[in-house]
Every structure is written in structure tokens, then in C-alpha cells.
Amino acid sequence: MMEGASFGAGRAGGTVDPVDFLKQPQTILRVTTWIFSIVVFGSIVNECYVNRDSQDPELLCIFNENESACSYGIAIGIIAFFGCIFFFVLDLNFQQISSVKDRKRAVLLDLGFSGFLSFLWFVAFCFLANQWQRTTMSKGVSQGADAARAAITFSFFSIIIWVVLAVRALQRYRLGTDMSLFATEQFPSEPGSAGYPGYPGSGVEGTDTYQSPPFTETLEPNPKGYQVPAY
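Below the sequence we write its predicted C-alpha cells.
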């Protein structure tokens, strides 16, 4: 039981199998959302800046010519990109963290960041979808339409994955807290505390089994006939 107590502190210092690590659902989710972030900001950077017409060299954001929409999508994609790398490395080295407090901080950081990214991706999806609906189709816009739709679609998928990551982080936090409480109850810090139960019926067994000191029957006749010699 203690092996999983306090956010897995019982396994601190253990080796990590790369194959098992890559097969973990949390690792798969992080890699997936990392790819989604690349799709979003890559699509916007490469194909979502178009010319209004062939005679105007100025590049405008494809989302209703709103520069804020493109900038926001790029920013969230980059934040998610580096965030996934950071937490991927943190997961890989989590077993090497020996301090329970540091493990708790890592889980809470994962929970807060995942929840925050879920909200940011929700805003990005709503913002981009709204601006795309208001976009007037033109020749330049039609050329980047697929990239714009891809950015919107993968923004929506990113919401789902980051919510799942937040839920998993919350489960890890609750599990770590519950196991810590269990360890505290089962293993009190004071050796002489009242938490250790006594042996049941020890008094009765002691009375029945040891009624007199050992060898009493053998030594009992000797004192009667023995006299201390006088010197």
C-alpha cells in the first residue's frame, strides 16, 4: 500500500521503461495535443494570411481580416506546443522526484495548466469560428479556406484533449491525497501511540499458561531439607 502513497513517492528513484511510458494514455494524449497545436499555428502561419486581391500585395488575416484572430490562434498554438513538451519531460522524470511536496506541486501544476489551456482553446475555437462565419469569400480566401477550417477543427479537438488531461490530473491529485491519509492512519509517527492494538486476550492466556515460575515443582522440595552451613 505504501508504494502508491503520497503521489507515488514509494516508487521514487525507480527506472522508467520507455516502451511502457509511451503506451501510457497520458503520454498518448500529450503527444496528440502537441500535434494538434502544430496543425493550428502552422496552418495559420503558412496559409491563413492572404491577399485581398492580386493587385494588393498586403497580406491580411483570412479570418474576416481580423489580425487579432490569427495572432490569438498562433499564440495559443505555441503555448500549447511548449507546454506539451514541458509536461512530457516532467512525466518522464516524475519517478525521480523524491519529495512528496514537489510531486504534489507537479500534479497541481499539471491540473492548473490543463484547465487553463482548455479554456484558452475554447476561446480560440469560438473566436476563429465566429470570424470565419463573417468572412467574405474571395479568390484569396478560397485558397486558404482549408487551412482556416483545419485551424478551427483542431482547436475544437484540443479542447477535448486538454479537458481529459485536466480530469486525469485531478484524479491523480485525489488519489495521492487519499493514499497519504491512508498511510498516516495506518503508520502513526509516534512508536508508542495508542493506534497499535494490543494482543487480544493476552491477560487470560498469560494467566492460564504461566501460573508459576519455571522449574518450581523441581526445586520446591530442596529448600525444605536444605540448611545453610555455618562457617
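The two ends are 70 Å apart (CA to CA).
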